[in-house]
Amino acid sequence: MLRALAADYGDAARTVLRCSATESESHLPFLALADLFGLVLDEISDKLPAAQRTALESALTGRGESTLQRDGLALRLAVLSALRILAAAGPVLLVADDLQWLDSASAELLGFAARRLGDTPVQLLCAVRTEGQEYDRHLRASPPDTLAVRLNPLSRNQVSALLDHRGYTDLPRSTVREIHRTSGGNPLFALELGRALGENPTPPRPGEPLPVPTSLRALVLSRLDMLSDEARRTLLVASAGARPTLALLHAAGRENAEAETAQAAALGLLATEPEGPAVRFAHPLISAALYAEAPPQERRAAHAALSTAASDPIERARNLAMATTGTDPEVAARLAEAAALARDRGAPSVAASLGLLAARHTPPDGTPGPDEHRLCAAEDAITAGEVDLARDIAREVLTRATVPADRIRAWEVVIEAAGQALGDVDAVFPQALADAGDDPRLLALVHYHLAWRKLIVEGDFSEARQEAAHAAELAARGGDRRTELMALSFQSSTETLMGHPNAPATIKQAMREPQDPYVACHHNGVGAARFRWLMMSDQLPEARSTITALLREVRRRGMVESEVHFQRFLAETELRSGHCGRALDLARESLRLARDSGIGLGASAMLASLAEASGGDVGQALALAREAAGRAEEDGDQMYLSRALAALGHAQFVAGDAAGAVGSLRRVRELEQGLGITDPARGRWQGDLAEALVRVGEPGEAQDVIAVTREHALRLDRESVLAVLDRAEALVRAALGDHEGALSRLTSAQDRLAKLGYGLEEARAAFALARLRTGRPGPTSYDEAARLFRRCRALPWLRQVDEAAAQGAGEPSVLTAQTPPSDALAGLAAMERQVAALVMEGATNREIAARLFISVKTVEATLTRVYRKLGIRSRVDIVRLAAGRHAK
Fold first, then answer.
1. What is the DSSP secondary structure assignment for residue 245, as one 8-state letter?
2. Tens-digit pLDDT profile for residues 294-312
3. Entry pTM
């Protein structure tokens, strides 16, 4: 970080002075001063007063007996003078690393100069490692205008990016998570741990800590030599425990735990916990290094003690496994029970780890066998969002499994681990169908995933629906209720998006008893299908309560992928309801979780874009929409590509880029026509497209979009879509000069949207009304629109209201532009006649744009066409036409 900043600032500096202190040299006086000024001493020496020159040369060269006590003032003034002399020739940058190890004499001299430089062009760039109150102490010693930037530990995503940048790209997410935890976010520690893993051909087994390289062990364990042997054994037991306490250490046979942990705390190995019984290491790496340093027999002894001392059955089982070598059916059974308990507690990641330990301790001929435990672990890993681990386990099982049911379970994991990139696992489906044979239960599972492939890869809703219906039929024949319900849920969601008349009946069929608790709360299950139906049917309060209950349940179960999607669904519900601030918070949290887990990134970025455009930063909205579209195209995901482009079009529209919005949303229209999506409530982009078309001077195409969409919305009874279409059609009418008709439609649309609970759309209608009324007789205030946008916390829209109000304050009356009865204008298109008429009345381009709800660029382009068709060159010629008409 310091090097990057120094490079940025150094470009503008004539002189760059550097020093980098070390702990071992911190006792040597004036060492940092010598590093800083040693190479420029000849340049400044002759310009210093004699006393200052003598004192500085003595300090830098070591000749003489210069000390702060004897030559204090001369030395202080010499350093200040030296910096001023260098600055007189050009800006100076002083870079000091590891300020905490700077020798005290140099630190005192630099501090004296820094506080007195004033406007002298000298910048000091310093880095210091601080703990506790030291941060404040360094700030108090700094000049008043010091800019302090605290560098916090790296987040998990940042550690992942750092490892990728350094070439450690094949590490599973679960391993990266462990590197982050063990390193405490320290980049040096993280890289060293990544390097050790990269050089180790055998990855750590489940339950084992990461291998700690010798370089880090030496760095963090230098103080261990000062511990007694018994205290070290006590700390080893603490490092082997998941949540060590003094009580646990006592139960594990460490009788003098209080005194031994106090000794470790005094050496800085343990953090003191005044309010609690926990024994916590000062840094996670200390625990990992201590464990890695211990001989294997001592580790097993520590785990054996904890296997009876721990009160939690999961911890007892885990420690029993770590204390046992070889296979042991009893240990394997205990681990399988612990995995089931962890699963019930909503800790699938722990369950996966325990399942792998159970497989390791199960004899090859055991019942259940090792692969059964591995498959359970893979399924738990999928639930926990650890898709890399799940895929690796499944691939391992497939190398030797011969039982068709086991192979199909493993193929399922491989397919689910692919996420939206189902095109990457195309080769799996023929193999899975061959393994399924003629077993309806196994075939149902394969055809369920084939339905998803038809939708995502091929973009064929009709084929996907048929595959899902076939899977449901096979599952019912085979008595597999879970797969039947998942297939029916998928079928109902597809029918809903298609506007298929069977959608309500399929949803009812999917909701019949008996239900499956897992399917009920799965993001592709019955509850999610019902939520989508409620949202598209304008039942926002019921949709909110449904998704809130589902989110609560998947969090309890630890279903990470479902949590990502349900958090996004809740954000969408709040956005539709006009709670933009709440939606933005939820969308950002969903995106953070998606980035952290690597799941649902495109979908979360898409929704976050919509939320940013409505309540946050429009620039961020554009970037997120482009990211979502890029991911969808990379994955070959046709379904989410249209959603991402719709978000991009919306963000462009809010940003004022009507032409860009038209381009993006026209592509959405083409994609959805190809996909067979007819329900306009799916993406709700049609109103934006129509309004953007009006702004670019294409009211005819806008009316066509409205007419086609209205037909589907009427058939499906989509009230909110119809109201938004009426709002868009009002703008078309206004652009064509029918202001009274536009006002009537806008007023009706606003009232209907308010009753349906679509707060943001209601505010947009109020904004359009205010713009249409500007300069006309009657109320002209933007206060109502501002109030509604403020209630929604729709900041980007609120800024637009402020700009429109400021522009409209001095506008003349907006009268319906009548086409002049001149034969010369007869050949113009409707929009061209409207623009020409307003020019004849003396309106500016900006006023015309506001009155006709089009952009200034569209006005300019339209005028260019008018000039060409009429054979004239400027606005003046149009005004002359008007004058000629009046003269007659």
1. B
2. 999 999 999 999 999 999 9
3. 0.73
